[in-house]
Amino acid sequence: MRASTTDVADVIVEVVSDDKTPSFFIAKTLRSIFGKTENDANQLSHAVQRHGKARLGPYLPSVAKTLCGAVQKYADAAGHPLRARIAPEDDALATPTRCSYCEREHAASRMMYAGRDSLICDACVLGCAQQLRTATPYRPHRHAHELLDWHYGGVPGADLVVVRRAFPWRMRVDLQRALEETMRECEASCHGVSWTDTHMELTAAMLLVERGNFARTLSPLQYEEIDVGGDAPVRCLLNALWLLRDGDTPITVLLTRRPRDETAGLTISIASPPGADSRAFADRLFARLVEAIEQAHSYRGKVLSLERETRFNGYAGGIAVHKLPSVARDAVVLPESTLQLLERNVVSFAAVRRRLIGLGQSGKKGLLFHGPPGTGKTHTVRWLAGCLPDHTTLLVAAQEICDIGEYFALARLLQPAIVVIEDADLIARERGRGGPGSEMLLNELMNEMDGLKPDAELFVILTTNRPQVLEAALAQRPGRIDQAIEFPLPDLADRRTLISLYRAELAAPDELIDAIARRTEGVSAAFMKELMRRIAQCVIERDDPSARGAIAEDIDRALGELALGRDGIGKGLLGIA
């Protein structure tokens, strides 16, 4: 005879409150008899005291009966009237045993929270809390520490890890562009922080731990505008605090400026709970910022100089971008041999530089442009810059020579580059001719030129009107100066070319052009340019409707005003030999 089996329905066990058993004993019973964790036992104990009972299960009837007996025995031994019972069948059937949100069984959850008619498991409670946190970014806060306390969910500031890096101040445009792009991708919220002490750096630790009168106040975001040569300036934050989450990890990123009495720079600080995930985020962010600075899209291929002060137009200082007019080869009036020497040593060299480096040759080149004032040295530099649009040109004026180290650092970053040091004789004069300050600058210049790596893609161009006073260790040593190029005063043919170039729209017959060229022997190109402007002014002032252009009287008057051959100082200023 085969035995038949009958399904046995599970039952619910109720722990019943008697208003006499203390809460700690109820929790102890739940841990000892039902195997609950300390946290779950405490929550169930509070539920017993609030609602008069707490439900556990479901269990097999035999198991439930054993548990109820064990509770009574355990309570009697301790002298407490606590009891457990099997819930009435009708009540048990009406009592939900699954999470009403995810339908997880009570036994599969660490904790079930009971409402009037339904249950919700601990996992769903945590999930809802996370959704609410995302849907409600933050309540208005006045101080930074309040905002950070909310963001980190009560994690003590002392338990966080802060990692920071300092970046060059002059590269803040590219740095901020990369930083803001990353923060947008992370859907980070951005906040301003009030900070007026220029002699102390704002740190993440200050925001986290300083309270009371020392608490840092949240403020509007503050920007400065920087000209990078585009149609509109770029706005850069003075300081900012970003809040974001990388997965489940709360992270803050702080942008601040270093104090005035330290090397100018920006500091990026990342604060997060310790762990591999937060460290990986910091590594990714710093790598992206370094890449943005190395690419330097804001300045690469432009004509630059360094500056320290805010300009009259209100733009912040740092790096000035110069918009130089393009110069065609026909506008560079020099002997053909000089032009060929320039093209071979600069344009042609740049074209084959990579192949030279591949053959183990040096990719850097030093050039010395020398000649009387006004012979076109600076003008030629502009032409060369236009011939090499992929090169960044750095113009070093005499008053900026104290920043020579920073110029070369920027050139190495932005290479291929051209470093132009004008009036080099002011610092590179022969030792003994200048003071100790000049010798220090000369040594720094030579050290920078010697320190360039062989594969550096740099041109270093020095211009001077007095090559004879240059230090021999600089001007006569290959590796520092590889080619000296003379810029002579224009001959008769070149003066004719200059007259045709600089007269622009001014009408002048060929015989008049020849007369001007013959009467201006020994003058510079700069003199010819000024002479043609004076002649044009004379034509306008003469106001003769019948005159269609310049006449001999205009030439006589212009040359007379320029005091040709009369004043030694005037001759020097105008480039007259």
Helix content: 40-55%
Report the mean per-residue pLDDT as an integer.
Answer: 82
Beta-strand segment tally: 20
Distance between the termini: 135 Å
- Strand content of the residues, in percent? 15-25%
Summarize the biggest pleated sheet: 7 strands, mixed
Q: By CATH's scheme, which homologous superfamily of the largest domain applies? A: P-loop containing nucleotide triphosphate hydrolases
Radius of gyration: 41 Å
Shape: rod-shaped
- CATH fold naming of the largest domain: Rossmann fold
Q: Which CATH architecture of the largest domain?
A: 3-Layer(aba) Sandwich
Tally of helical runs: 19
User: What strand line-up does the widest sheet have?
Assistant: 15-14-17-18-19-16-20
User: What is the domain tally?
Assistant: 4
Structural class: alpha/beta
What assembly state would you assign to the polypeptide chains in this entry?
single chain
- The first-level CATH class name of the largest domain: Alpha Beta
List low-pLDDT spans: 1-6
Summarize the structure.
Pfam families: AAA, ClpS, zf-C4_ClpX. Keywords: ATP-binding, Hydrolase, Nucleotide-binding, Protease. This protein is of the alpha/beta class and 577 residues long.
